[in-house]
Write a structure and sequence with these properties.
Number of strands: 10
Strand content: 15-25%
Largest sheet: 8 strands, mixed, barrel
Shape: globular
Radius of gyration: 22 Å
Helix content: 40-55%
Strand order of the largest sheet: 3-4-5-6-7-8-9-10
Distance between the termini: 38 Å
């Protein structure tokens, strides 16, 4: 899900507080829509846990709250970070082949128990939020859809990509993607119905039966759903992706892939999948700005061959926007066009602003 692919706001954005974004939000959080409400609910859950084994965690949380009486968010993050370290220290001691007892397992040679617990705590407590970033039609700059981006309330400074990599490393990558998708689908029900919603998924997660069910039973019109495939896949996985896409395409589902950057989708796979959208990141933008006189990039011809829309992400300046439009791209997103937001009022305002702008121009 959505992930921080290019300089996105950390956690909830500068000066922003969190809003709806998860199926298991506390009642008060759902009502008030603030990050503090959610954090206070989670703090209460920890402090009222009757399990004797949780006394250490309760004591540590009380200590952090005493240190930051006016900042419960920071206190809770420090508590989670401390819990992770404690989990790592409590890894089991093992007996060596010579009969000696070894210390805790090295994190580089075995799964990190503390890290596993950290990821599991996110899955269990739904410490997730969803921000949406507007995607504009170009050159009109009309908002046509939004991309769902995952935020981690419990992040100790790590961005979303780090969380997903760590989850994958301990065998919980798909579980975390599904939790993020559940969160994003729930939030997407508050996005104006005329906008499409793009969800980021790895090829492996997209072919999961649970993910297919989530998409089909999301309450969203299937022709308003775009699945952005992120990350690599072997040949067998890619064949399953094509089969899964074809099963949902007749109902209106669209699919997007990366056409540039470190994780770009190779041309032969684009030809076999025939995506509806090919997204181009800041490496593409930098290229057309630095060498404006070069021949047309191959990805543009490839998009024309498969009938895909070309969309730029990471547009941050007027010069970049002009270059993207000159290159023939017909969709774009980035800080210049609209920052990610967790506020439903912002999601609605994007549509209102677009309508007002179009009416003014006419």
């Amino acid at each position: 899900m959505s992930r921080d692919e290019f300089t996105l706001l950390s956690v909830t954005g500068a000066g922003e507080t969190a809003g709806p974004g998860g199926p298991a939000l506390p009642q008060q959080a759902a009502k008030d829509g603030s990050l503090r409400d959610q954090v206070m609910e989670l703090i209460n859950d920890v402090l009222t846990d009757p399990d004797p084994k949780a006394e250490w965690a309760r004591a540590q949380l009380r200590k952090h709250l005493a240190s930051h009486p006016d900042n419960p968010e920071r206190a809770f993050l420090e508590h989670l970070a401390g819990t992770r370290k404690q989990g790592a220290r409590q890894q089991p001691r093992t007996e060596g082949v010579d009969g000696t007892t070894a210390g805790p397992l090295d994190e580089r040679s075995a799964p990190d128990t503390g890290l596993t617990k950290r990821i599991e705590s996110v899955l269990g407590s739904r410490l997730l939020l969803t921000a949406f970033q507007p995607i504009h039609e170009l050159p009109e700059r009309r908002v046509a859809g939004v991309e769902a981006l995952t935020r981690f309330v419990s992040s100790d400074g790590s961005d979303a990509d780090t969380w997903f990599r760590e989850a994958e490393a301990v065998g919980l990558g798909t579980e975390l993607e599904i939790a993020a998708l559940q969160c994003a689908v729930s939030a997407a029900r508050m996005v104006p119905a005329n906008l499409f919603v793009a969800f980021n998924l790895s090829p492996a997660a997209f072919t999961e039966t649970r993910v297919q069910g989530l998409l089909q039973n999301s309450g969203l019109a299937m022709d308003k759903i775009v699945v952005e495939l992120r990350g690599g896949a072997n040949d067998m996985q890619w064949s399953r992706v094509i089969k899964s896409v074809n099963l949902l395409r007749h109902r209106g589902l669209r699919v997007a892939v990366d056409g540039s950057g470190a994780g770009f989708t190779p041309a032969d796979r684009i030809l076999s999948l025939r995506p509806d959208i090919i997204k181009l990141d800041r490496t593409f933008i930098a290229g057309i700005l630095e060498e404006p006189g070069l021949d047309e990039p191959a990805v543009i011809s490839l998009a024309q061959e498969v009938g895909a829309v070309l969309a730029a992400e990471g547009i941050e300046t007027d010069a970049e926007l002009a270059a993207v439009i000159d290159a023939g791209l017909t969709a774009g997103q980035g800080y210049l066009l609209g920052r990610p937001s967790v506020h439903p009022l912002d999601w609605s305002s994007w549509v209102i602003q677009t309508t007002v702008g179009v009416a003014t121009e006419s």
